[in-house]
């Protein structure tokens, strides 16, 4: 391990500390701050020449600053002659804009992939991308981890009976199917439709949830509107306990208030994004992916397969 150095940006220091602890390694010495006008300032304070370097940085709120901080750190490491630079990005922002679904819109996921590559990243390690095809936007290796095993361990301790896995929208059916297979549970989908631009959204439940305990699964919860609406439809359809297992808890605007006033009994998120103090709630439980990333970093460093970390999941 003497050839490995792990640095952290400022976006999620708490997760970075858990990764360091699981790696039994110290954080690489660096200065990461801002100039008076807000420009990112980075200085690497130890020798990284010929080292295998990992940079832990979620590109979460403030998104643009976190992304720019990551790019500048990578550039500094490249110019310091690091042998390999792996960008460890627990939450990969801009992945929701992964295609041209209407005229004259950007594909920002591809843009960010280009920026990271040009900055000097040799490899990407990330978790539950919003769209799997984002991996193909990179011309460098991408290791894509899944949070499914972390959630599986959490829910197995609860020993929930009569379980159904639910996708809160049609777009998440592949993820829900993978979870249903691993949990050995039934599958249902919330189909959201608008009959006209002026009509109120109507929720249809595809699958049997009456008298069942349900776990809604998705990769991102932002404003919480779709999740809360889906929970309401599930409760109306006769569901008992309603849980939500969401990898990345953005929880923007008044999302926490919506969840507190919803039919969701517990929202379980990972610490890929730091849950700020003002967003804490009795209904929100945070589980860590620190060990998952530490194990992946070790395996990448020693040139071992990381597929054992997510098993035979197929979406």
- CATH architecture identity of the largest domain: 3-Layer(aba) Sandwich
Structural class: alpha/beta
In total, the number of strands is 14
What overall geometry do the principal axes of the alpha carbons give? Answer: globular
Spans of at least 5 consecutive residues whose pLDDT stays below 50 are none
For this structure, the CATH topology of the largest domain is Rossmann fold
- Overall pLDDT level: 92
- CATH top-level class of the largest domain: Alpha Beta
Count of runs of 4 or more consecutive helical residues: 8
Number of domains: 2
Fraction of residues in β-strands: 25-35%
Secondary-structure element order, as H and E? EHEEEHEHEEHEHEEEHEHEEH
Spatial order of strands in the largest sheet? 10-9-8-11-12-13-14
Model description:
- The chain starts with a strand and ends in a 14-residue tail after the last helix.
- The model has no long low-confidence stretch (mean pLDDT 92).
- The longest helix is centred in the N-terminal third of the chain and has 17 residues, at 63-79.
- It contains eight helices and 14 strands.
- The chain is of the alpha/beta class and 315 residues long.
- It has a seven-stranded mixed beta sheet with strand order 10-9-8-11-12-13-14, with helices on both faces. The chain has a five-stranded parallel beta sheet with strand order 1-4-5-6-7, sandwiched between helices.
- A hairpin with an 8-residue loop joins strand 9 and strand 10 (202-206).
Helix and strand layout, with pairings?
Blueprint: E1 4-8, H1 13-23, E2 30-34, E3 40-44, E4 52-56, H2 63-79, E5 84-89, H3 108-119, E6 123-127, E7 142-145, H4 148-158, E8 163-167, H5 173-183, E9 186-193, E10 202-206, E11 213-221, H6 225-236, E12 242-249, H7 255-260, E13 266-270, E14 284-287, H8 290-301
Parallel strand pairs: 1-4, 4-5, 5-6, 6-7, 8-9, 8-11, 11-12, 12-13, 13-14
Antiparallel strand pairs: 2-3, 9-10
Helix pairs in contact: 1-8
């Amino acid at each position: 391990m003497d050839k490995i150095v792990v640095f952290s940006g400022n976006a999620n220091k708490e997760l970075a500390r858990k990764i360091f602890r699981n790696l039994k390694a110290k954080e690489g010495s660096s200065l990461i701050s801002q100039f008076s006008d807000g420009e990112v300032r980075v200085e690497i304070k130890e020798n990284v020449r010929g080292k295998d370097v990992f940079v832990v940085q979620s590109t979460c709120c403030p998104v643009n600053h976190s992304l720019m901080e990551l790019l500048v750190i990578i550039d500094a490491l490249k110019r310091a002659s690091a042998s390999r630079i792996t960008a460890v990005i627990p939450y990969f922002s801009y992945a929701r804009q992964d295609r041209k679904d209407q005229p004259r819109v950007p594909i920002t996921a591809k843009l960010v992939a280009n920026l990271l590559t040009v900055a000097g990243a040799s490899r990407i390690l990330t978790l539950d991308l919003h769209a799997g095809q984002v991996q193909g936007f990179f011309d460098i290796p991408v290791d894509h981890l899944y949070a499914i095993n972390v959630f599986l361990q959490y829910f197995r301790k609860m020993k929930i009976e009569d379980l159904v896995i639910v996708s809160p929208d049609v777009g998440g059916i592949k993820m829900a199917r993978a979870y249903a297979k691993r949990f050995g549970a039934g599958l249902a989908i919330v189909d959201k439709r608008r009959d006209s631009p002026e009509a109120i959204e109507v929720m249809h439940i595809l699958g049997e949830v009456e008298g069942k305990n349900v776990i809604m699964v998705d990769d991102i919860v932002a404003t919480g509107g779709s999740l809360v609406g889906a929970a309401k439809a599930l409760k109306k359809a006769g569901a008992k306990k309603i849980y939500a297992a969401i990898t990345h808890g953005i929880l923007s605007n008044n999302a926490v208030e919506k969840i507190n006033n919803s039919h969701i009994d517990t929202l379980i998120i990972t610490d890929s994004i730091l849950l700020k103090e003002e967003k804490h709630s009795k209904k929100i439980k945070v589980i860590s992916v620190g060990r998952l990333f530490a194990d992946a970093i070790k395996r990448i460093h020693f040139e071992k397969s990381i597929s054992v970390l997510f098993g035979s999941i197929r979406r």
